[in-house]
UniProtKB/TrEMBL annotation:
Keywords: Signal. This is TlpA disulfide reductase family protein. It holds the Pfam family AhpC-TSA. It comes from Chitinophaga defluvii. Residues 1-24 form the signal peptide. PANTHER family: PROTEIN DIPZ, THIOL:DISULFIDE INTERCHANGE PROTEIN DSBE. Residues 253-416 form the Thioredoxin domain. InterPro entries: AhpC/TSA, Thioredoxin-like_sf, Thioredoxin_domain, Thioredoxin_ResA/DsbE_sf.
C-alpha cells in the first residue's frame, strides 16, 4: 500500500509539473489582424479572394470575406497551435488551414456533408495584400468601359436561358453581378486589363470565377466557372433592354389545381400540413429552400425580419428545406443553424434530399420545381395566388427594389381580404 501510495503521489506531481510547463509554454502566434489575399487553385486556374481578420486570438476573431461592397462574417476556431477551422455559417463547409512558419496560410475549402466525397479546393493566403487580380503598378489601360447591362448567351449541353450581367467599371476595377432565372451570383469583383477581364466571388459557398475577352466589335466572349466542374461558355452583347423570363410565370400549378398540399416533418419529427388549424384563414408564405443554397439564405434574410414585423397581421410562413443528406437528424442540424442565424420564427420542415425531382414529387401540384428558392403565396381561402422562382438580392439594384415593392403591395392586398366565413372561428383562435 505504501509503495502504491508513493507511486500515486509521484504520478500526480509529475502530471502537475507537466501541466504547469504546458501552460507556461507560449502558444504559437495567431494570424495577423488586417487584410489578406487568398488564392484557390481550381483545375489550372488561380481564383483570388480577399478577407479581413479582426481579433488577436481565435476566441474573439472574426473572419470577413470581402466582395465589392458585400461583407460576410464567420467565426474562427483554433484546432491545435497552428491550425484554424472556419465554418461557413449555414453552408455545411469550412476553410481548414494551417499557419506556416513564414506567416502565410495554407489549407483547403472542405465539404462537411457526411459521406460526401467532393473534391476539396486548396488555397494559400498572404497577409497585407488588398488587391484581387492585378498587383498595384502592373495595370494595363482598359480597352473599353464594361459598365452597363449585358445580355449573356449561354452555351450548354442543355437548353439554358440567357443570363444578364450588371457591371460597373471604375478605371481598371470591375464589380458586378450575374442574374439567371434561379437568382443571382452575389457581388463579384475583378479587373479589366487591356482587352481581357476577370471576376471572382467567394461568400461562403463554392467560389465563382469569370474570365473573358473584349472583342473588336466590343462584344464579350468568356467562361463562367462555379466550383470545380461547372464551367459554361458565354457571349455577351451590351443591351440596356435585356430581360430574363418572368419569374412569376416559370413555376405554376398544374391544370385542375388551386391549392398546394403536403405533409412533412418539422425539425422535431412532427408532421405539419397546410390543413392544420394554425394556417386556416391566414395568408401563408411557403418558402422552398436549402441551407446549401446562397440565394435561399439571402431570401431567408429578407423573409425572417419581414415576418417578425408582420406576424400579427394574419400571416404565417413555412420553410421547406431540401438538404444535402436525406436524413432528419442531419436536417435538424443544418436547418437548426439557419433558424438560429436568421432568428426564424416560423415553421421549418424537412422535405428530403436536395434534388429538384424529389421536390417536385413532394409538391405534386406544381408543374415542376425549377429553382431553390421558390416562394409560394397562399391566400386566406387556402388557394395559391402567386409563385416566384428564384431570388434576386440587394446587389441587383432595381430588380431587388421592384421585388420588394411588389411583395409588400401584394401581401398588403391579400392580408386586407376578409377571412372566409367558414374559417373565421378557426382563425380567431390564433396560434
Amino acid at each position: 500500500m505504501k509503495i502504491s501510495n508513493r507511486l500515486a503521489v509521484a504520478s500526480l506531481l509529475a502530471a502537475s509539473v507537466w501541466s504547469t510547463a504546458a501552460l507556461a509554454s507560449p502558444k504559437k502566434p495567431f494570424i495577423k489582424e488586417g487584410i489578406w489575399r487568398g488564392v484557390f487553385t481550381i483545375s489550372e486556374s488561380e481564383v483570388p479572394f480577399n478577407f479581413e481578420l479582426k481579433g488577436k486570438d481565435p476566441e474573439h476573431a472574426v473572419f470577413t470575406l470581402l466582395n465589392g461592397s458585400r461583407r460576410d462574417e464567420f467565426h474562427v476556431k483554433r484546432i491545435g497551435d497552428d491550425s484554424l477551422f472556419i465554418k461557413m455559417n449555414t453552408y455545411d463547409a469550412a476553410l481548414v488551414a494551417r499557419i506556416a512558419s513564414d506567416g502565410k496560410i495554407t489549407g483547403e475549402y472542405r465539404s462537411l456533408v457526411p459521406n460526401f466525397r467532393g473534391n476539396a479546393l486548396p488555397f494559400t493566403a498572404e497577409y497585407g495584400k488588398s488587391y484581387r487580380f492585378a498587383e498595384p503598378g502592373t495595370a494595363n489601360p482598359p480597352a473599353y468601359d464594361l459598365s452597363g447591362k449585358w445580355d449573356l448567351k449561354i452555351y450548354s449541353k442543355e437548353a439554358t436561358p440567357n443570363r444578364i450581367g450588371l457591371l460597373k467599371q471604375n478605371g481598371n476595377k470591375l464589380t458586378g453581378v450575374i442574374l439567371s432565372v434561379v437568382g443571382d451570383s452575389r457581388e463579384l469583383e475583378g479587373t479589366v486589363q487591356g482587352d481581357e477581364f476577370v471576376l471572382s466571388g467567394f461568400t461562403g459557398p463554392s467560389p465563382i470565377y469569370i474570365k473573358g475577352k473584349i472583342n473588336d466589335d466590343k462584344s464579350l466572349s468568356g467562361e463562367l466557372s462555379l466550383g470545380i466542374y461547372n464551367n459554361i461558355k458565354f457571349d455577351g452583347e451590351k443591351n440596356a433592354a435585356a430581360e430574363l423570363p418572368d419569374p412569376y410565370k416559370l413555376t405554376y400549378l398544374k391544370e385542375g389545381y388551386k391549392k398546394l398540399d403536403f405533409t412533412l416533418p418539422d425539425l422535431n419529427g412532427n408532421n405539419v400540413s397546410l390543413s392544420d388549424e394554425k394556417y386556416q384563414g391566414k395568408v401563408v408564405i411557403v418558402e422552398i429552400i436549402g441551407t446549401w443554397c446562397p440565394n435561399c439564405t439571402d431570401q431567408t434574410s429578407f423573409l425572417a425580419p419581414w415576418f417578425h414585423k408582420n406576424k400579427d397581421r394574419g400571416v404565417e410562413a413555412i420553410a421547406i428545406g431540401f438538404e444535402q443528406k436525406d436524413d432528419l437528424e442531419y436536417a435538424r442540424y443544418t436547418l437548426g443553424k439557419l433558424k438560429e442565424k436568421y432568428n426564424i420564427e416560423y415553421d421549418i420542415l424537412f422535405g428530403g434530399i436536395a434534388d429538384k425531382k424529389v421536390a417536385s414529387e413532394k409538391l405534386p401540384a406544381l408543374n415542376r420545381m425549377m429553382a431553390f428558392p421558390t416562394t409560394i403565396i397562399i391566400d386566406r381561402k387556402g388557394e395559391v395566388r402567386q409563385i416566384h422562382t428564384g431570388y434576386t438580392g440587394e446587389v441587383t439594384g432595381t430588380y431587388y427594389k421592384e421585388y420588394v415593392a411588389k411583395w409588400n403591395k401584394d401581401l398588403d392586398a391579400l392580408l386586407a381580404e376578409p377571412i372566409p366565413a367558414e374559417k373565421t372561428v378557426v382563425a380567431s383562435n390564433g396560434h
